[in-house]
Design a protein that fits this description.
The protein has 3 helices and 11 strands; from the N terminus they run H-H-E-E-E-E-E-E-E-E-E-E-E-H. By secondary structure, the protein is an alpha+beta fold.
């Protein structure tokens, strides 16, 4: 009887020790309310804050993507420090935002994903990607370039889509 008690106690202790993980020091956590708050076309005075909203755009202007929560002057997105790739040092909750932009066929609307340590994020679209529905997808990346995960172990990401409406001169 004592042998079974001892074995059961050992298994219970092993399980308890194996499940006790302090995630606050081992992996970065981004803000729980991470979102793309708006997409702006500065020259055309347009703004999208809801999925599928119409965004006027001219032939060559860049777009600006804003995140929530607002990034502070100290480059903090909540408690997460934004820094350029390689710029985090030993800071655990540190990294950058990776932004991808795709059209309705899932083709890339930019030359490459945009890694940004600042906001707003400037987006220069390919010339053929200035008309139709575009999806803007942002993910927080840690100092090693891996996606930051939520407390529920899902990737911390946000999306917002915009229906681009170029001026008539852009379509000719």
């Amino acid at each position: 009887m004592n042998r079974y008690f001892f074995l059961t106690a050992m298994i219970a202790c092993s399980l308890a020790a194996g499940c006790s993980i302090d995630s606050s020091t081992s992996s970065p956590r981004g803000p729980s309310d991470f979102a793309i708050s708006r997409i702006v076309s500065v020259k055309s005075n347009g703004e999208v804050t809801q999925n599928g909203g119409s965004l006027p755009i001219d032939c060559s202007e860049s777009l600006l993507v804003y995140l929530a929560p607002e990034v502070t002057s100290e480059h903090l997105l909540g408690d997460f420090l934004l820094a350029a790739p390689g710029g985090c040092g030993s800071t655990v909750s540190c990294g950058w935002v990776e932004l991808t932009v795709t059209d309705d066929q899932r083709a890339s609307a930019t030359d490459a994903p945009i890694d940004s340590p600042t906001t707003p994020i400037r987006v220069d679209l390919k010339p053929g990607s200035r008309n139709g529905l575009l999806t803007f997808h942002a993910e927080l990346r840690d100092s090693a370039g891996a996606p930051v995960q939520t407390d529920l172990n899902t990737i911390l990401s946000a999306e917002l889509s915009a229906q681009l409406s170029p001026s008539a001169a852009c379509l000719n």
